[in-house]
C-alpha cells in the first residue's frame, strides 16, 4: 500500500499516506491503558512484519513496555496488549527504554 507509520517520544503513533506526507492519515496516542488519568507512554521503537499480519504493529516505549497495536482500514487504531505492564496482566517490564522490537521470522507471534 501507500501507508507508512512513525512513532515518537511524545506518545503518538502516526500513520501517513505517502501520496500526501503533509497530512497525518491517522493517529493513536500511546497510553498505559488506565481508565482514570491514563499516562502517556513515549514511543522509542516500531516493528511491523507482513507475516505477523498486515495491520499489526509493535511499539517499544521509554517506560519499558511493549504495546501491540492493530490498524485496520477506515477504523480507529486499537491497542491490543501491553506487554510488561503488570497491572494489565504482564509479567514485569524492562527497567529502561525498549530501543528495539523484532519479531521471530519463523514464528511471528513471538518477539524480542
Keywords:
112 residues; mainly beta; four-stranded antiparallel beta sheet; three-stranded antiparallel beta sheet; globular
Strand content: 35-45%
How many H/I helical runs? 0
Which structural class matches the secondary elements? mainly beta
Q: CA-to-CA gap between the ends?
A: 27 Å
User: Would you identify the regions where 5 or more consecutive residues have pLDDT less than 50?
Assistant: none
State the share of residues found in helices, binned by percent.
under 10%
Oligomer: single chain
Summarize the biggest pleated sheet: 4 strands, antiparallel
Q: Strands of the largest sheet, in order across it?
A: 4-5-6-7
| Helix-strand pattern | EEEEEEE
Q: Mean pLDDT, as a whole number?
A: 88
List how many beta strands DSSP finds: 7
Description:
This protein has strands spanning 3-7, 12-17, 20-29, 43-48, 56-61, 66-70, 78-83. By secondary structure, the protein is an all-beta fold. A 4-stranded antiparallel β-sheet has the order 4-5-6-7, with no helix packed on it. The protein has a 3-stranded antiparallel β-sheet with strand order 1-2-3, with no helix packed on it. A hairpin with a 7-residue loop joins strand 4 and strand 5 (56-61). It is globular and about 40 Å long. It starts with a strand and ends in a 29-residue tail after the last strand. 21% of the residues are buried.
Amino acid at each position: 500500500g501507500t501507508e507508512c507509520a512513525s512513532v515518537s517520544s511524545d506518545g503518538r503513533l502516526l500513520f501517513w499516506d505517502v501520496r500526501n506526507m503533509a497530512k497525518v492519515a491517522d493517529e493513536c496516542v500511546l497510553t498505559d491503558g488506565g481508565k482514570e488519568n491514563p499516562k502517556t507512554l513515549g514511543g522509542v521503537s516500531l516493528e511491523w512484519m507482513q507475516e505477523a499480519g498486515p495491520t499489526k504493529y509493535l511499539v517499544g516505549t521509554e517506560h519499558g513496555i511493549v504495546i501491540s497495536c492493530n490498524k485496520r482500514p477506515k477504523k480507529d487504531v486499537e491497542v491490543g496488549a501491553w506487554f510488561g505492564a503488570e497491572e494489565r496482566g504482564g509479567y514485569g517490564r524492562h527497567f529502561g527504554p525498549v530501543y528495539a522490537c523484532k519479531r521471530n521470522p519463523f514464528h511471528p507471534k513471538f518477539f524480542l
